Amino acid sequence: MRNLSTPLKRLRFATVLGALLGGAMALGEAKAANPLELNFWLSGPRYDGRVAPCEHALPTIATQFWEKESTFWNSALKIEGFSAVRETAFRPWQSDNIPRRYCSGHALMNDGKVRTVHFSIIEDGGYASFGQGVEWCVVGLDRNWAYNPACKAARP
After folding, report:
1. CB of 151 within 8 A of CB of 145?
2. pLDDT at position 114
3. Residue 99 DSSP symbol
4. Tell me, what's the pLDDT at 57?
5. What percent of the chain has pLDDT over 90?
6. Could you give the CA distance from residue 25 to residue 78 in angstroms, rounded to a whole number?
7. Cα angle value 147/153/154 (rounded, 5°)
């Protein structure tokens, strides 16, 4: 027959040790950043301002639109093509902000309707800040109201 006291002793010891270490860490005081950390290491982001032209984002928008419609809304709606794509603004705010190129155009849907699409291309706006990201909104199909009213929040 096995001696059960040894594993129980280990468990008790680990519990007491964890409680002591946790208590000791909780008693430590928080310190502010020293002058070296404030002025040297925290230099802030550096943006180049190189953002792709509007046409670069169109395949991404078409793919993401189809994925959203089919996955979340159980819809067969797709974007078949784009027309009249133009830039509406580039870095419309201060130069310290993240560089964005705002664009608008028309999207031809597979149901035969033409809808307006507003989108922006964002420097370092991709997944985990790698690459350029795209935020878009198709007027009349913002079903979760992320950019309402009428995709106004997707414009500059």
Report:
1. no
2. 97
3. P
4. 96
5. 56
6. 55
7. 85
Peptide bond into 149 cis (omega under 30): yes
Name the helix (H) or strand (E) containing 21: helix 5-27
Please identify which residue in the block is written with the tokens 């946790």: 22
SS3 118: strand
CA distance 10 to 42: 44
**Phi, psi angle pair for 90, to nearest 5°:** -135, 120
15 DSSP assignment: H
Helix, strand or coil for residue 145? coil
CA distance to 88, 143, 147, 155, 156, per residue, from 152 (Å): 13, 14, 6, 6, 8
Task: Read off the pTM.
Answer: 0.70
Q: Are 77 and 109 in contact (CB under 8 A)?
A: yes
